[in-house]
Specification:
Elements (H helix, E strand, L loop, with lengths): L9 H5 L25 E5 L2 H11 L3 E5 L14 H9 L2 E4 L5 H9 L4 E4 L18 H12 L16 H18 L4 H25 L7 E4 L5 H6 L3 E4 L11 H14 L3 E4 L6 H10 L2 E4 L15 H16 L3
Parallel strand pairs: 1-2, 1-3, 3-4, 5-6, 5-7, 7-8
Length: 326
């Protein structure tokens, strides 16, 4: 894959004052319902959006999330209460095309500030992206819903797994917060600069950690890592078109066995929010190891980190081990 070396967004480079992220107040998703506080009320669609709202908003925001910890976000269905909460919020932060039910509710909502993370960076077509965990037929239907312009594939929504693209989104979110709540604009800007510095450090760690490896190919259960792979010169090979609960076909097992030998693949990655059955079956038959590569769609007690940065650092360590980093 081509490796694109975009410069990290301006706030990461020009940050004059870097606040430690530990000093920011992370508003809990269990806090008061949107619209019922004296703070800037933000509804976030799922964890990566919730994290941005908390880090950028700090003490000035009250954040609620539509996707609870441990809930698979792609198939989210909204309750009447959640839809009502959205209408009472000051802002909603979401990633269009990831959660169709959220997209539909936001389109019908009269919330004043609608922040679409997908519009704050460039989405790309990674070809074999599996958007849904329900098998080929369900995934095809889902892709048709997501790709309004037609074509063979939908655009890949998993931009948050590339720290550079995530930083671009963070900058746009900060600008939206500043415009919607100008009384606290300076604080939003400072918080965003601190976050951008943290994401810049994460990007550097990935570049350095994955610069020299025995192999550039990794196997994963869910094709969520296309942006990460492209950013750092890797190739993602997903066990594509299979329900996570099903057994890989003998033909697919053979194909992946051959690729593992040819490319020096050692590990099949699975994730925390879906079954590891497929990955472990493939690994056993192909003589490979298994490990977790977390797509960060939610934080649970099984996550190898307490927040976005912590889990991404764990992902880096897992990749370094699996790829034979020097």
């Amino acid at each position: 894959m081509n490796v694109r070396r975009r410069r990290i967004s301006g706030i990461a480079v020009t940050a004059a004052t870097a606040l430690g992220l530990g000093t920011l107040s992370a508003c809990s998703s269990d806090s008061s319902a949107a619209g019922n506080t004296d703070k800037f009320d933000v509804v976030a669609s799922f964890y990566p959006m919730e994290y941005l709202a908390e880090q950028i908003g700090g003490d000035h925001v009250n954040v609620t999330t539509l996707t609870e910890p441990g809930q698979e976000p792609h198939d989210l269905e909204l309750s009447a209460k959640q839809t009502a909460q959205m209408g009472e919020a000051d802002a909603v932060l979401y990633l269009k095309s990831l959660q169709p039910a959220v997209d539909e509710a936001i389109a019908q909502s009269d919330v004043k500030t609608k922040i679409d993370a997908a519009a704050l960076t460039k989405l790309e077509d990674h070809g074999d992206v599996e958007h849904d965990h329900g098998g080929e037929e369900h995934a095809d239907e889902h892709a048709e819903e997501e790709h309004s312009e037609g074509g063979e594939h939908a655009l890949d929504p998993h931009v948050w797994l590339d720290p550079v693209k995530y930083a671009e989104i963070a900058e746009g979110v900060a600008e939206s917060f500043e415009k919607a709540d100008p009384d606290h604009a300076d604080d939003y800007r400072r918080n965003a600069e601190a976050l951008a510095k943290k994401l810049g450090g994460l990007d550097t760690a990935f570049k350095n950690g994955l610069a020299k490896t025995d192999t550039k190919v990794f196997f994963t259960n869910h094709a969520a890592f296309g942006y990460l792979a492209e950013r750092y010169g890797l190739t993602q090979e997903a066990i594509n078109g299979l329900d996570p609960e099903s057994e890989p076909s003998p033909a697919r097992i053979k194909e992946l066995q051959e690729e593992a030998k040819a490319d020096g693949v050692t590990t099949v990655f699975y994730e925390t929010l879906v079954s590891d059955k497929t990955a472990k079956t493939l690994a056993k038959d192909a003589g490979l190891k298994t490990d977790v590569l977390d797509p960060l769609e939610g934080i649970t007690d099984k996550s190898k980190g307490e927040d976005y940065v912590g889990v991404m650092e764990a992902n880096l360590k897992a990749l370094e081990t699996a790829l034979g980093a020097k």
